[in-house]
UniProtKB/TrEMBL annotation:
Annotated ranges, domain DNA-binding protein H-NS-like N-terminal: 2-77
GO molecular function terms listed in the Swiss-Prot or TrEMBL record: protein dimerization activity
Highest taxon above the source species: Bacteria
The species this protein was found in: Aeromonas media
Protein name (record): DNA-binding protein H-NS-like N-terminal domain-containing protein
Upper lineage: Bacteria, Pseudomonadati, Pseudomonadota, Gammaproteobacteria, Aeromonadales
InterPro entries, A to Z: H-NS-like_N, Histone_HNS_N
Length: 82
């Protein structure tokens, strides 16, 4: 969040911006921020898992191609000719 990182560069400026809020409001805001952070963590982890799985599929395919002595160039030429 660029706004938060540029406006609230330290705890003092954040306190100043939030001084009009009650402790209940601050706790509610904290809960919302934590929920958003947890969602983001889950999304990032899912993306990491997906990327890892994709890399594993690519590695498996490369291994199969190597076992059949097929070069990537041959495979590309074959797929282009179809």
């Amino acid at each position: 969040m660029k706004l938060a990182s540029t406006v609230f560069t330290d705890a003092r400026s954040l306190r100043s911006a939030l001084k009009g809020l009650s402790s209940e409001d601050l706790l509610a805001l904290n809960g919302v921020i934590e929920a958003i952070a947890l969602e983001r963590i889950e999304e990032e982890e899912a993306a990491r898992v997906q990327a890892h799985e994709r890399q594993q599929v690519i590695a498996d395919i490369k291994e199969l191609l190597a076992l059949e002595c097929i070069t990537p160039e041959e495979l590309l030429a074959f797929t282009r000719s179809r």
